[in-house]
Amino acid sequence: MDFLSNSNLLFYLAAYLFGSIPFGLILAKVFAKVDIKSAGSGSIGATNVLRVVKQTNPSLAKKLGIATVILDALKGTAVLLVAMSLNTPIETLWAIAVLAVLGHCYSIYLGLEGGKGVATGLGVFVVLIPIPTLIGAIVWGFCAKVLKVSSLSSLLGLTGVVLSALIFNNGLEVGSNAPMYIIAFIIYYKHIPNIIRLVRGEEKKVI
């Protein structure tokens, strides 16, 4: 009963469980009848949804890709906004943010497998550090348009968020940059295969 009365623990659990929902996998199965876990890169993120569904239904692929980005981002914002409405301390909000990203990247519903965490990271960052996130989004958009490499654009955008936060919002109101670094590390870590392919010149472009 003590557990059920502890709002922080309930928020942590909700953040992880909600973050674990594989929206890309669900959307692709329901609307395109394809299993993105067994096709393309095997990721549950928007890029793989776009890449796999595009092979059979190009017009649907873009819609599902956009829907995946939005829903994956909302996984990060939903629990945060509820917690903020209840005047939850900023330290708890950052813990919620970390757990939401962990849920997406290591989903309990997929045997602790998952996506790369970019959209969910965007969702939590836009709530907690909006100005650096806007700057990072601009960096991502520019790089995506010029480079047309999803992984590289995402990593450069994430780097833009972190650097901007250090310049404009040092301390993140919790006396430490650790929560932001943890989220960034998780996303970078999940992109190691992409980084290896980038170094080898084998990473595919999104056309």
Automatic annotation (TrEMBL):
<dbReference type="GO" id="GO:0008654">
    <property type="term" value="P:phospholipid biosynthetic process"/>
</dbReference>
<comment type="similarity">
    <text>Belongs to the PlsY family.</text>
</comment>
<keyword id="KW-0812">Transmembrane</keyword>
<dbReference type="InterPro" id="IPR003811">
    <property type="entry name" value="G3P_acylTferase_PlsY"/>
</dbReference>
<feature type="transmembrane region" description="Helical">
    <location>
        <begin position="118"/>
        <end position="142"/>
    </location>
</feature>
<dbReference type="GO" id="GO:0005886">
    <property type="term" value="C:plasma membrane"/>
</dbReference>
<keyword id="KW-0472">Membrane</keyword>
<feature type="transmembrane region" description="Helical">
    <location>
        <begin position="93"/>
        <end position="112"/>
    </location>
</feature>
<keyword id="KW-0594">Phospholipid biosynthesis</keyword>
<feature type="transmembrane region" description="Helical">
    <location>
        <begin position="9"/>
        <end position="32"/>
    </location>
</feature>
<keyword id="KW-1133">Transmembrane helix</keyword>
<dbReference type="Pfam" id="PF02660">
    <property type="entry name" value="G3P_acyltransf"/>
</dbReference>
<keyword id="KW-0443">Lipid metabolism</keyword>
<keyword id="KW-0808">Transferase</keyword>
<dbReference type="GO" id="GO:0043772">
    <property type="term" value="F:acyl-phosphate glycerol-3-phosphate acyltransferase activity"/>
</dbReference>
<feature type="transmembrane region" description="Helical">
    <location>
        <begin position="149"/>
        <end position="168"/>
    </location>
</feature>
<comment type="subunit">
    <text>Probably interacts with PlsX.</text>
</comment>
<keyword id="KW-1003">Cell membrane</keyword>
<keyword id="KW-0444">Lipid biosynthesis</keyword>
<feature type="transmembrane region" description="Helical">
    <location>
        <begin position="180"/>
        <end position="199"/>
    </location>
</feature>
<comment type="pathway">
    <text>Lipid metabolism; phospholipid metabolism.</text>
</comment>
<comment type="function">
    <text>Catalyzes the transfer of an acyl group from acyl-phosphate (acyl-PO(4)) to glycerol-3-phosphate (G3P) to form lysophosphatidic acid (LPA). This enzyme utilizes acyl-phosphate as fatty acyl donor, but not acyl-CoA or acyl-ACP.</text>
</comment>
<protein>
    <recommendedName>
        <fullName>Glycerol-3-phosphate acyltransferase</fullName>
        <ecNumber>2.3.1.275</ecNumber>
    </recommendedName>
</protein>
<keyword id="KW-1208">Phospholipid metabolism</keyword>
<feature type="transmembrane region" description="Helical">
    <location>
        <begin position="64"/>
        <end position="86"/>
    </location>
</feature>
